[in-house]
Amino acid sequence: MRRLAISLVVALLLPSALSATRITILTNDPPLTGFNDPTPAEPVGGNSGTTRGEQRLIAFRHAAAIWEELLDSDVEIIVRAQFSLPENSTPCTETSATLGAAGPSRRVSNFANAPRRDVLYPIALANKYAGRDLLPPIPDIEAFFNADLDNATCLGTRKWYYGLDAKSGDDVDLVVVLLHELGHGLGMSGSLNVTTGEFSEGLPSVFEINTLDLASGLHFDQLTAEQRKAAVISGNQTVWSGPSTHDAAGRTLDAMAVLTISEPQAVAGVYEINPAAFGPRVESRPVAGRIAAALDEADTAGPATTDGCSAYTNPAEIAGRVALVDRGSCTFVEKALRAQAAGALGIIVVNNAECGLPPMGGASSAVGIPAVGIAKADGDAIRQSLAQGAVDGALHINPSLRSGTSTAGYVRLYVPCALSRGSSMYHWDISTSPNLLMEPFINDDLPHGVDVTIQQMLDIGWTQPPLLPDESPGGRRVLRRGR
């Protein structure tokens, strides 16, 4: 329910000559809390504020200024924000926390100059096309942030970093989180009820008409509710089809790591894999050779003889080859260390769920071989071929494919096999490299910039200010390129 609250307006200068849009921030915190927190603070990383609340406001203005330079609108964008989460939010723990939440205050259709009929647009974008504020005095974006992160009970010793220099270290960079949440409010969001598959406002949003289900080849506005429900838990089979994002992904995302099998012909081809978060990356240590099924004891470490959780019983068959094991019973790191101890060149972990790839999370400096995950159907096919004879393969980089994209080059949306409310659908998939701003988890290596997400904004109808004479296309506004 919307209401106009008595709010503090952040003191803003007019946008600079580089900016074509003005973003005004209204704070909605009670006195002495949130953006009004008087706790003394030392200036840090270019943030000159001397209280915690003042530093929060300065960081917000900094993030807003980045978006201002990228978007072109003659209508002021009003953001109402408070540094406290809604009462129904998931509580903090020492290991997990909701950092923030934001979205458009309204989505509207069939307004003056609407690009498409019967399609919902976030109100800030609708205002741009209409050339006026369609719903005064309602703010355009609602945003909430977690003040508890500055307490030791939330994420342990990690806390908010209020600097403007992207040097957050082990702390959580507030500017990055602000950029992320403003992205949701500006258009990385939609009208789909991910639980029911229905459009919550009776119409698709401009986001859904650009969302493609690879299984059917149809966009979400062309699917039935039941088909949409299935697509939202399809495990990487839902992509963003906008042309601007497609083109930018080919220029900015890293090449994709894949498994290529050359023999036998029954399983020959290119297979999608998920590289582990630990150990050497495939791009730095490609591996080629025979694939061999690892066998181990069925014991308390793992009840199956194929899970790779105990010392291998066939190490001679694994040495100098790529080990194939099943997911389950022990960690991915433990599986990789078992393969490494047997002399394997690398390890492939086959998912134990029908949908998607193994997540391959974990951390270890002891793993010295590449570790990757593969879908169950693909792994089962390889295992069947191994029973008939040798299988030759290679873990390598395919320069013709981009990480986090489909074979046609469309960037994947985050649609894991199990629904994740608040994360599924309206984020980029976590398989992209480098990490992207609008992934569901804030990564520590993100700079203070906007990546292919600006192209997603162009796909839904935002435009950019004209380039200045000393700017090259894609220069200032593509704020990060692949490493």
Q: Brief description of this entry?
A:
By secondary structure, the protein is α/β, with parallel strands linked by helices. Helix content is 19%, strand content 18%.
List the helices and strands and how they pair.
Blueprint: E1 8-9, E2 23-27, H1 52-70, E3 77-82, E4 100-104, E5 107-108, E6 121-122, H2 123-130, E7 141-145, E8 160-161, E9 172-173, H3 174-186, E10 211-213, E11 218-219, H4 225-231, E12 238-240, H5 243-252, E13 255-263, E14 269-275, E15 287-293, H6 315-318, E16 322-326, H7 332-341, E17 346-350, E18 371-374, H8 376-386, E19 391-402, H9 453-460
Parallel strand pairs: 2-3, 3-7, 8-9, 15-16, 16-17, 17-18
Antiparallel strand pairs: 1-2, 4-7, 5-6, 10-11, 10-12, 13-14, 13-19, 14-18, 15-19
- Percentage of residues assigned to helices: 10-25%
What is the overall silhouette? globular
Query: Mind telling me the C-alpha Rg?
Result: 24 Å
- The total count of helices amounts to 9
The end-to-end distance, rounded to whole angstroms, is: 44 Å
Strand content: 15-25%
The sequence of SSEs as H and E is EEHEEEEHEEEHEEHEHEEEHEHEEHEH
Return the structural class. Answer: alpha/beta
Q: Total number of β-strand segments?
A: 19
Low-confidence stretches: 1-18, 469-483
Strand order of the largest sheet: 13-14-18-17-16-15-19
Mean pLDDT equals 91
Largest sheet report: 7 strands, mixed, barrel
Key structural traits:
five-stranded mixed sheet, disordered C terminus, 483 residues, 18% strand
Structure description:
By secondary structure, the protein is α/β, with parallel strands linked by helices. It contains nine helices and 19 strands. It has helices spanning 52-70, 123-130, 174-186, 225-231, 243-252, 315-318, 332-341, 376-386, 453-460; strands at 8-9, 23-27, 77-82, 100-104, 107-108, 121-122, 141-145, 160-161, 172-173, 211-213, 218-219, 238-240, 255-263, 269-275, 287-293, 322-326, 346-350, 371-374, 391-402. The strands form five sheets. Strands 13-14-18-17-16-15-19 form a seven-stranded mixed β-barrel. The protein has a five-stranded mixed beta sheet with strand order 1-2-3-7-4, covered by helices on one side. It has a three-stranded antiparallel beta sheet with strand order 11-10-12, with no helix packed on it. Helix 1 packs across helix 3. It is globular, with a radius of gyration of 24 Å. The two termini are 44 Å apart. The model is unreliable at 1-18 and 469-483 (pLDDT under 50).
